[in-house]
User: Fold this.
Amino acid sequence: MSRNLPASRANSGPSGQARKIGPQSELTSRPKYVTIPEFGVVAVESRHAANWSGPSWFNEDFNKFVFVISGCVQLRTPDVKWDLHQDSLVHVAAHAKHSFKDLRGSPVVIYVIHYREKILPAPLAAALRRQSIHHWRMTGSQSNAARLVRQDLQEMLFEQVIRHVGWEALLVGLLIRLAVRVMRVSERQPAAVSPEAGSSPLRVANYVAALANDFYRQQSLDEAAAKVGLSRRRFTELFRSLTGTSWRQHLLAIRLNHGARLLEETRKSVTEVMFECGFDDPSHFSHNFKSCFGCSPQLYRKGTTTSKRVKDGG
Assistant:
């Protein structure tokens, strides 16, 4: 059974259906109410008027993600305060006592996702529940994560408006994907690179370690340097000193070795292998693979298969 629940800056349409707030939408000066539908999640956009004010404390019986698009807002608990700037994301667990206050008179625009915890897989829900409030500031080394979070939120708002078949299930899936993204950011943060913390060699070393798990993403040298808060030249120097090779060659080697492993251990087609390694051009993949291993991907698979048969068959 759906219930009307208080939302910090949330708007809802008739019958609790979230509506898209366009450029001409009225600014809100006080928290409104939003209905969480039966399937368990709703996303809203909220634009604060200059005189926006909320209650002294929220104590809500639902969970929420809050993502700052523009402006600066302060999140307060009885013990801690966080200044949330553009690309800040917070997760607030149910019954976590908190409040919001707009800062510096700048226009505040936020996205808020309200959801019932039961729709998340139990391990993921438990990870989010370990802290009553999680805070991620996705700038610098986490700028790509912020872009992906924006895309997830934009897709949720779009699906709520268009309502194509299966949109409810898709919203749940997008929420789960968003939660996984940010908890992986949390896992990386203790060893993560940051323009504000750690020496330059340490930040590059952390980036090198992380590259082993996200080599398939499309990225440029400039983006890699920006991710650790260094100039392209300085990043290139440190990367070579740590790995003995260039960024491009190191990334290429990781991709090709992964491709070789897939050819050896799976029945995936060469096209599938190419895609999963981060290549988008078959001829480019084949050319680089042959340069590295001395034969085409097809011949490599036949060779490893033959070797395995000889080894296994005696």
Notes: Residues 1-25, 189-198, 307-314 have pLDDT under 50 and may be disordered.
